[in-house]
Amino acid sequence: MPETPVADLRDAIERVEVAYEFLISFAGEGIDRETIQSGTGQTKEYLADFEAGLVDGYEAARAVPDSHEEFDTEAYRAFLDDMGPEIEEARTVLELLAEQESVTSRMADNLNGMSVFQSVMMKFFFLDELTGHLERE
Q1: Beta-carbon neighbour count of residue 85 at 10 Å?
Q2: Hey, is 45 helix, strand or coil?
Q3: Distance (Å, rounded) from C-alpha 38 to C-alpha 116?
Q4: Does an H or E element contain 70, and which?
Q5: 102: which DSSP letter?
Q6: Is the pTM of this model over 0.70?
Q7: pLDDT tens string for the chain (137 positions)?
Q8: Which helix (H) or strand (E) holds 12?
Q9: Which helix (H) or strand (E) holds 103?
Q10: List of domains in the chain
């Protein structure tokens, strides 16, 4: 299947969801600064995947109207415009966390508790549901 904005959006949402689920699982492991072993490297990979997925998903969502004019509406553009600052805020948090020498479960738990991540995830799931019927074989 050729790459399209809808397919790219779906792919990015799946990548973001996998990374988010990993961080939620990591948050429950109780790893603190004293018990960190080799998990930080893997956690940082998921943080990078999460950030890249946010960027790719947002770009793909913005490109959907290029292929599907029914989404070339003021409401769709306004929804994405409102989502933009949240994407940037979430990226900043992910970058800050990735800069740390070690990542603890508590840090991941705090990230999960931030409303910006809950909002961004739900908006991506909403976009997936909104566009999911497009380009199905």
Answers
A1: 10
A2: helix
A3: 28
A4: none
A5: S
A6: yes
A7: 558 999 999 999 999 999 999 999 988 877 776 665 555 678 889 999 999 999 999 999 999 999 999 999 999 999 999 999 999 999 999 999 999 888 888 998 999 899 999 999 999 999 999 998 887 65
A8: helix 5-27
A9: none
A10: 5-131 (1.20.120)
